[in-house]
Amino acid sequence: MRTMLRPSEAVRLMHINLVLVRYGLDEVILAAHLFRPVRFVRYLLPWNWFRAKRAPRGERIRLALEALGPIFVKFGQMLSTRRDLLPDDVALELAKLQDRVPPFAGEVAMGIIETELGKPVSELFASFDPTPMASASIAQVHAATLQDGSEVIVKVLRPGINRTIERDVQLLHIVADLAERYWREGRRLRPVEVVEEYEKTILDELDLIREGGNAAQLRRNFAGSQMLYVPEVHWPLTRRRVMVMERIHGVPIGNMEELRRRGVNMKRLSERGVRIFFTQVFRDSFWHADMHPGNIFVDCTDPQDPRYIAVDFGIVGTLSPSDQHYLAQNFIAFFRRDYRRVAELHIESGWVPPETRVDEFESAIRSVSEPIFDRPLKDISFGAFLLRLFQTARRFNMEVQPQLVLLQKTLLNIEGLGRQLDPDLDLWTTAKPFLEEWMKERIGAEAFARGLRTNLPRWAEQLPEIPSLIHNVAKQATEAKRTLDDQRRELVEIRRELRRSSERAFLTVLAAALILGATLLMALDGLHPRMLAGAPALSWILGLLAGALVVAAWPRGD
After folding, report:
1. Range of the domain at 338
2. Per the structure, how many domains does the chain have?
3. Per the domain annotation, does 525 fall within a domain?
4. Residue 142 counted as domain residue
5. Same domain assignment for residues 331 and 383
6. pLDDT of 12-44, one tens digit each?
């Protein structure tokens, strides 16, 4: 890890420290083990003498991150999902971070578009609005019309964003490395791993071709669905720094007043939100992992049959088949209150150490889970539930699963949306039938038949190769058996040699003891000849025995 700072990084780090001091977070700096000897300096700083009562620490941290800029805002948003790392008050406050920054000039955006696509904006679009519709830390969006009259949005990366991100992420790496070495909680919270995880996520967002691919995949997954609509990507006009996508018209999910004015069926909308989440995770193993209210709209064409519209696909989540299977079984066991099965699944999946006692883990899970059952969403908090669950898991040395972090973040977003749309929504009742049906499809007769249909063409292609494969396997088995026999003979010889060496060592030690005894008898005979009249003869006998033992222990050629 590089810890030497370039001049520009040193200036930026100084700015960061000044911002922390401005928002009353100088104790964060001085709390580090590195600064423990000079911690008394805090009481000598003049602004601490007259400072009024401070805001809560979570609020001060949020305000400082907003002042530090977009990269730190997004880092704070990611941290807000890590309930295993942060105190609850800080995590809840960081969840309020808004990714809103001033737009850059429309002329600059047009210049980037023309550089990427190689043509003037007037040739590419029938119309282009230089005033952005929305502006965020990574990119901003403009409205436009294609030459065929189709309405589109044009997403353009911020100029110089790569350099900004590289600089700030490098600073985060340096700070994380120092924290891990000098902060008392550094090793447990693993800040270096957290920064590495964040770096992967934010670098993915810098490639709009990747985002377009995510959108196209999600659009295919929900083709013809009445639950979710994903706008189409216009690939001929999409590059790494520019993406052109179909423009959608809907009501922002956060505009509850407008949704109610249009008579939208909130109960159906909230239930569909839950089904969309579980469909993406378990049917497709590919989900929109940035489902905050700014990225979700509602198609109110039929208020009694509303449909979600999603935008901004820079962050998606995936699961391996094994994680997907274990997760589904965990949910089902959890919904059935089969806490022992939940504990067993955690051990089987390797999420907790194999030596964990199932009964103790089961009891701990029950104590966290039981209080939230049979209660509507308005009366429970997934945030608090996840916090207690992480605290419990930490007691049993459960390691954080990186592949589940985005899932936790998405689940928290779903909670927020559901709480707004229908506070009386019973999440468990809505999700349980879906998961049970999914498991039935995965392990039932239909799943077996579907697997046969899927794999039969591939097996047919491989059928002519089976005789040669069998021959190769038999040949390898014969060679393996020959090698195994040779190794077995070598092991037998090694054991025999070890046994001989052990016997020789025993006889040699015994001979040495006899020689020592004979020597002592001879010495004592010289001192007290009358008391030890038979000592010379006995010493000679011991010497002869020792000699015989030495001869017996001497290695012989076999």
Report:
1. 251-443
2. 3
3. yes
4. no
5. yes
6. 667 777 777 777 776 555 554 444 544 445 555
Predicted TM-score (pTM) of this structure: 0.67
The span from the CA of 88 to the CA of 421, in Å, is: 24
536 and 496 inside one domain: yes
Instruction: Give the pLDDT score at 135.
Output: 85
What b/e string do you get for 53-64 counting C-beta neighbours within 10 Å, with b at 16 or more? eeeebbbbbbbb
Same structural domain, 361 and 316: yes
pLDDT at 274: 84
Which residue is listed with tokens 């927020």? 416
In angstroms, rounded to a whole number, what is the distance separating the alpha carbons of residues 29 and 182?
11
State CA 512 to chain mean position distance: 64
Residues 383 and 337 in one domain: yes
Q: Do 281 and 388 lie in a common domain?
A: yes
For residues 305 and 269, the answer to whether their CB atoms sit within 8 Å is: no
Length of the chain counted residue by residue: 558
Same domain, 318 and 275: yes
Residue 298's pLDDT is what? 95
In whole angstroms, give the CA distance from residue 162 to residue 205: 11
Residue segments in the chain with a per-residue pLDDT below the cut of 50: 1, 32-35, 37-40, 47
552 burial (CB, 10 Å; 0-12 / 13-18 / 19+) is: middle
Tokens of 229: 């609509």
Q: What is the pLDDT of residue 476?
A: 74
Q: Assess if residue 113 is contained within a domain.
A: no
Q: What is the pLDDT of residue 4?
A: 55
Neighbours of 219 (CB within 10 A): 19
Residue 378 near residue 351, CB atoms below 8 Å: no
pLDDT digits (tens, 9 = 90+) for 80-104: 766 555 676 777 777 777 666 788 9
pLDDT tens for residues 473-483?
677 777 777 77
| Active site (catalytic) residues | 290
Residues 507 and 425 in one domain: no
Sign of the CA dihedral with 410 first, then 413, 414, and 415 last:
positive
Q: What is the mean pLDDT of the chain?
A: 77
Helix (H) or strand (E) holding 288: strand 286-288
Helix (H, G, I), strand (E, B), or coil: what is residue 143? strand
d(CA 207, CA 192): 24
pLDDT at position 199 is 81
- Bridge partners (DSSP) listed for residue 245: 153, 233
- Decide if 532 contacts 521 (C-beta within 8 A): yes
